[in-house]
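FAQ
Q: What does a multi-component entry look like?
A: The components come first, one per line:
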Amino acid sequence: MPESEVVQDIGLDEYKYGFSDDEAHVFRTAPGLDESVVREISKQKEEPEWMLKFRLKALRIYEAKPMPNWGGDLSDLEATLDEIYFYVKPQDQMERSWDDVPDNIKTTFERLGIPEAEQKALAGVGAQYESEMVYHSLKEEWASKGVIFDSIEDGLKNHPEIFREHFATVIPAADNKFSAMNSAVWSGGSFVYIPKGVHLTTPLQAYFRVNQERMGQFERTLIILEEGAQAHYIEGCTAPVYSTDSFHSGVIEIVLKRDSRFRYTTIQNWSNNMYNLVTQRATVAENATMEWLDGNLGSKLTMKYPSCYLMGEGAHGSIMSIAYASDGQHQDTGGKVVHVAPNTTSTIISKSISKGTGRSTYRGLCKVHEGAVNSRSNVVCDALLINDTSRTDTYPYIEVEEKSATVGHEATVSKVGDEQLFYLKSRGMTEEEAMALIVRGFIEPIAKELPLEYAVELNRLIELEMEGSVG
Amino acid sequence: MNPPQVMSEVVEAEESGISLDQRAVERASRDVPTWLKDRRGHAWSVYEDTPLPTTRSEEWRYTDLSRLIDFGELRLATGESPPADRPLALDEAMAEDRGAAGHVVLMDGGVVQVDLDPALAASGVILTSLRDAVDDHTSILEEHLATEAVPPEQGKFQALNAALWTDGVLLYVPKNVEIELPMRVTHWLSRPGSAACTRTLIIAEPGSRVSYVEEFLSEDFDRRSLQSSAVEIIARDRAEVQYVSLQRMGRGIFFQAAQRALAHADSALNTLNVSLGASVSRIDLNTSLLGPGAHGNLLGLYFGDEDQHFDHNTSQDHIAPHTGSDLLYKGALDHRSRAAFRGVIRVHPGAQGTDAYQTNRNLLLSDEARADSLPNLEIEADDVKCSHGATVGQLDSETLFYLLSRGLSRQQAERLVVLGFLGDVLARLPLGGVVEKVTRAIEQKLGSG
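Then the predicted structure of the entire assembly, as tokens:
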């Protein structure tokens, strides 16, 4: 079959994007994290005094908080924290146009298909190389509507009032150990502001890339939608393979004002030496809708639980996630919904696949506060196990203080059925093809929500991964 | 032994009381075989080395012990001087136990009555007080008591109980003996501020069948008191064991039970926990499926009112291949009552062919009631069928409306719906003889609410 030949050609053993460019950074801090590093970052970025104070306060919180004693195994990471470079600045200047982007960086992006994506008239491309935005464009039509899509640094510089009003209001530094760390050393990320009533029909898109061994990336994103605004933000990650562990710890804050609607799509395919510890949360006002679409395919360990705080009456939150854990990987993911206001609704749909020695964990919270009258929440988790060495866990927390609330959770765990395989083989498929088809069918309800090029890539990945998984 | 000395000790115990401390362990270790003395001493050292669990630990997330119990205030109930008159409520409860293969009555931590069908005794069945069993069946206790099933290492309360237990029940059913009627055990606590530590050891030999129903009772107390219970069940190949606990203690009581069942090949284990009484109730229940073909059925129901607090912590451990388990816990919560359910299905590596299910459903009847549910799965084998579900909701308005339209008062209608909701659990009980009693107990509580 031609298709499977293509699959063979790509090869399984090599990580698809496992190339790396020569390191050409301009400035980096000493390894490890202390006050001088934080001051240096703030100085390099020419930040206002309040931000430096915020960073230093966050550093103290970080130092005081213990490592989490739940989730994945963080002991290796903890042992190497002193060797991590917390800040690397690739260039002195922000690039204005594609032509000005250095060739080696451009080569990397081309191999990731970014120019292609732009040709497809994707709205704005914020490409992050190492710790800062090096290339950034925004369609003029949107600029005229007052939409802001900037690097987080420029957001702070150019829109100080909006920035300060919302920054760290959704995720305070003290939320957890890693949000505190991020708050102290954040660098890079996006600042998005959609004014009242503006509807963006094509998605905003950002690519992320970590390109230096032992370099942490502390992306910080702040997104604000004014009343009645609508938008879709897409973030995809790939990273080169290195022999020692890498570390990514982001904080994504989203503020949705009344009647707004927002979708945040992430596909994470870090190389499998990456620790990916992300805090992402949205506050959702009256009649607003937040949708998280979360795909976790790569990394060594991911701990990420997109959250919706339903603060206004009639707010809706939705979290759809796919986790894929292959040999040596642990995807500890899930979602949180907190119902604070009356008549709020939420759904969580989670699908996970564990293969080889991979482990997928669903960890979720559904909390209904007293007074969140007639709130409804439904959580469905399905786990598929491919091999007898695979593992899956489900840890949902359900906390209900409101009599009129209706909350349901269900989860199933299963393996690919012998009858299913037998049937497909009897129709002429190889075992691998049959397996890939079944797995694709399993994740289809979520995959169909993805933008086309991501869905195609996801399907390709599953075909690759299912090779050699049988027998 | 010198009788006058014992008398004076009893008097001392009743006057000032025996604190839960090292001296109490030494007192309990007098005139006992060395193995038991060592075992109590070991358990006490585990107790001392185990910090009081806090809400920072997952297993105690929803029950803050530091606010609910103070071990220093409690005085050990020794069972050495039971109340002279049998309490009326105890007799009333026992009067319902028509049809029993045997009875045991415990008052304030000591057995005061044991009777067993003579035909069963003749066929080798043992039903006896644990204190007597130390002398009469010492090899059984040495092998199984607080070793395999509920060793002190399992937690603070388990260690306390293993160090200080004063009495309890041994039930031994020989190979292939099938007992039709249940064993009925009734516990009564009469002293406010006391701590009763009792244990139950049930051993069902291959091919045997038995049902064990125990009930916990007391008056309402204005001082915190503790009933601590450790239940160890060993079901050998093809044995069928039913264990039912009906907890109807008075307010003021902290009820704590650690129950563990070891299920060997092709055995069937059925447990039911009914929690209606006490101010605080914490039950740890584990079923370990150790042999192929073993099956566990874990049922529970709870109904809280006022400021009652129920905490269930269950686990289903699938260790051997081709085992099954099914858990259903349902509860209704009125007034300011709270319930926490934390349950985990663990499928261990190699336990292929596991079928495991887990369901927790809660009904909130009041604006101030609260339910927390954490149904967990940890699956390390791939050829399994596992699912779990948890819900929190209110009374079904359509059902209520129907009943109101048939002329029932709102209160009557609500009672019926709650009974139906909880009664679901009883319908799953495979062995008879207790459904009526449990139903009546729920009705009684609903009526008073």
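Q: Is there any commentary attached?
A: Sometimes. For this entry: The CA atoms of residues 56 and 326 of chain A lie 39 Å apart.
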